[in-house]
Specification:
CATH class of the largest domain: Mainly Beta
Order of helices and strands: EEEEEEEHHEHHEHHHHHHH
Radius of gyration: 20 Å
Shape: globular
Distance between the termini: 33 Å
Number of helices: 11
CATH superfamily of the largest domain: Jelly Rolls
Structural class: alpha+beta
Number of domains: 2
Strand order of the largest sheet: 2-7-4-5-8-9
Largest sheet: 6 strands, antiparallel
CATH architecture of the largest domain: Sandwich
CATH topology of the largest domain: Jelly Rolls
Length: 284
């Protein structure tokens, strides 16, 4: 469960790879030289790209630069989901995009992908439509579709930059602690009272050393991470139509008022408005 360098195999007769991985029961914290575009559709899920740990609801479309560490987007998903992943070599960019003046926007997009870019709105809808049809197209048509998708993304203002700094492996802190151990511990104890002293001991660090390491790796305190994980789980339960008070206790909080306040702080709306808004989109 330590960080892994993935060996991406792309057919020598093609410029990119498109596939639909199923890894929900596997913690795959990894990186690779290839640039990656990921689309995942699910009730709720965790997004971990570089230092950024957040969540998505309904679906997510993320462009991840070369050698940026990331977790598989279907990790821990317990509901139905679909996923499409496109991977292409840096050489594809250097030989086919960088030298072409008309592709300057795409070149800038791919440079910015080292921060991790999450797209939303009409941009996401249009790109997803093209991705879902690429499987059925011949090689030339699918290559043209990929170029069209990159141009859509490059021209869009509907995106969020996930990291404030370059988090490629050569700039990233070495993974001295196995992140999988931390995730497994939180998943097992999020509804109880996760103990920072206990997890520090599990990864063979003193508590102060673990806290410093964790903050450097994720830009979050351990308490912030636990709260974010709990609220991510709470979203799933809310979308399954559980009562708010039941969800509060189910994810380990003892006060409904505190749960409501924290949920609004992290999500930007109350559990009631969140549940109402997504119920109308067919997620309950």
């Amino acid at each position: 469960m330590q960080i892994i360098k993935e060996e991406v195999v792309i057919d020598k007769n093609r410029s990119f790879r498109i596939f639909s991985p199923r890894l929900k029961n596997y913690f795959y914290w990894h990186y690779h030289p290839e640039i990656e575009l990921v689309y995942v559709e699910a009730l709720n899920g965790i997004r971990h790209v570089g230092k950024n740990i957040s969540s998505f609801t309904g679906s997510d479309l993320v462009l991840i630069g070369s050698n940026v560490p990331h977790l598989n987007f279907d990790y821990g998903i317990e509901t139905d989901y679909q996923q499409i992943v496109v991977q292409f070599h840096k050489a594809f960019v250097e030989k086919n995009i960088a030298p072409v003046p008309e592709f300057q926007r795409i070149q800038k997009l791919l440079e910015d992908s080292t921060f991790g870019l999450s797209f939303y709105g009409e941009t996401k809808s249009k790109v997803v439509y093209r991705l879902q049809n690429m499987h059925r197209e011949d090689p030339i048509s699918s290559l043209l579709a990929l170029t069209e998708i990159l141009q859509m993304l490059a021209s869009s203002t509907e995106f969020e930059q996930l990291n404030k700094e370059d988090t490629r492996m050569k700039f990233f802190f070495s993974d001295k602690v196995r992140m999988g151990t931390i995730y497994q511990y939180i998943h097992k104890h999020f509804d109880q009272k996760p103990d920072v002293n206990e997890i520090a001991s599990l990864v063979h660090l003193s508590t102060p050393a673990f806290c410093r390491y964790f903050k450097k790796q994720t830009d979050l305190t351990f308490t912030d991470f636990v709260n974010q994980y709990r609220i991510t789980q709470a979203k799933t339960y809310l979308l399954q139509d559980a009562a708010i008070s039941d969800v509060c206790y189910r994810v380990g909080y003892e006060s409904v008022s505190y749960f409501n306040k924290l949920f609004k702080k992290l999500v930007g709306e109350t559990p009631t408005s969140f549940k109402t808004r997504y119920r109308g989109k067919g997620w309950s």
